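Troubleshooting log. The previous run stalled partway through. Resubmitting the same four chains, unchanged.
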Amino acid sequence: MDYYSHQLDSIFLALADPTRRAVIGRLGTGPASISDLAKPFDMALPSFMKHIRLLEETGLVETRKQGRVRTCTLEKKRFALVDGWLSAQRAIWEARTDRLEAFVTATQSKEEKSR
Amino acid sequence: MDYYSHQLDSIFLALADPTRRAVIGRLGTGPASISDLAKPFDMALPSFMKHIRLLEETGLVETRKQGRVRTCTLEKKRFALVDGWLSAQRAIWEARTDRLEAFVTATQSKEEKSR
DNA sequence: AAAACACTTAGCCATTGCGCTAACTATCAT
DNA sequence: ATGATAGTTAGCGCAATGGCTAAGTGTTTT
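Second attempt completed without errors. Output:
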């Protein structure tokens, strides 16, 4: 339960930046090199690299260097943690909704049932 | 497309903190006052309040004050933005997978069924 | 061998995030 | 009216984030 906490921290933090989300979007279509990825952004390379490194540290992106080119790929499995958290929240809501529905149903069971 | 960007920034940032995620979890079971919410946390009230205010600013939580008590409720709709972004990413992956599948299918079309 | 390329390292800077204490305001209870 | 309760405001401090420039490393290309 709490094990995921730190991972969620870093994943959500990683997603909280438009540059990084854009990189993720781009990598969704397939692997790319650093400079390919950097091209669309009006940003010095070292600044851009920090984003890549952060994405790598959170496990959302994996990189491999061959020769002088570093190729980045998206680690899609990693998004399961986000999904997991979201659906856990929804499960909580549903549980409450069920209780509420039970209450509402019980309360109005004297008069109506349609709709 | 880009209009949502800032909202996603702030939502993901809001989710990138364990205290705030815990608050969200708690509010998932129903509304609560500030001090009720704060109880489980070993943190000064003003510090805790900052989290609440941030959650409110991002629209994930709504608050209303009656008398001296401020009641917080979860704005569940807000999570749709996260869902939306996630499924947009998945759509990108699928598109690529489709292309890849088309390729694989075409390549091995001598032996296998159509699609 | 020299030049171009693709990063990489180091270090600076401004802003923001997240915690604190101290002191204040506005109810509500007695 | 006193005092407890529930927030609120103001301001401090430290670490992390997100940008930059300048200079360096290791690979390819010519």
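Takeaways: The first helix of chain A runs from residue 3 to 15. The radius of gyration of chain A is 22 Å.
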